[in-house]
Structure formats: structure tokens, C-alpha cells
Amino acid sequence: MVQKTVKDQSEKIIEPFKLFGNVYFIGTYAESSHIIDTGEGLIMIDTGRDNLTAILKGLETFGFTPEDVKYIINSHWHGDHTASTREMAELSGAKTLIGREDYEKAKRFFTADIIISEG
Q1: Residue 1 CB neighbour total at 10 angstroms
Q2: Neighbours of 67 (CB within 10 A)
Q3: Going by DSSP bridges, is the β-strand pair 13-20/95-99 parallel, antiparallel, or unpaired?
Q4: Nearest CA to 96 among 62, 61, 69, 65?
Q5: Which DSSP string corresponds to 34-66?
Q6: What is the pLDDT along the chain (119 residues), one digit of tens a residue?
Q7: Does this model's pTM top 0.70?
Q8: How far lies 84's CA from each of 22, 118, 119, in Å?
Q9: What element of type H or E holds 81?
């Protein structure tokens, strides 16, 4: 369900929902973010660009707080996946991760705490 009506489709928030088990969707039509509840904290996958409102609403919907997010994994460097990472990391204290191949380009959005490589 759309929470607000705006001209730009990318700004429409999708009602947060549980995908399955311990995996949740929090985001917008154009920029999805997901959280995984490990039982010891949350792992967030992607933060989007200007997606912070949707993320905070989603966390609150499921009874979580920003401080519950322990890791933010960025799937790749594009701004629609990473532009809110710095701000979310500052709010939560989470460690940020990105793949080695994307690290240099991601620096314009955030500084990764952990650079991941295959293997």
C-alpha cells in the first residue's frame, strides 16, 4: 500500500511487510531495502537514496529501532542502493560493508568499514 501520493514514483513508500521468516521489506517502489533479524541484531541490505523515511518507518513498524541495525550490506555502489548509507550508519552505529569491486565508487556515498571479497 502507498503511504503518500507524490508525482515521482520513486518517492512512494510501500507499506513495510514480512517477506518470510526473519526477512522484512522496508522501502519504496523504486528503492527497496531489506532487513534480516538475526536474533542478535539486524542486517540491512541497501539503504537507497532519500529512503531514510521509509527505512525508519519500516523499522518502527516491526518494533525495531535504528540502533538494532548492526550491519549494512550494500549490494553495489549505485546511489539508489547506497546514498543513505552514511546517514543510516550514523543513526544506528552499524558497520557498513561493500564488495571490493565497488568500494572506490561507493566512497562518494560512505566509507565502508568492511570490504568483502568472494571466497
Answers
A1: 7
A2: 13
A3: unpaired
A4: 69
A5: EEEE-SSSEEEE---SS-HHHHHHHHHHTT--G
A6: 444 443 444 457 888 999 999 999 998 888 889 999 999 999 999 998 878 888 999 999 999 999 999 999 998 888 888 989 999 999 999 999 999 999 999 999 999 999 999 86
A7: yes
A8: 23, 25, 28
A9: helix 79-82
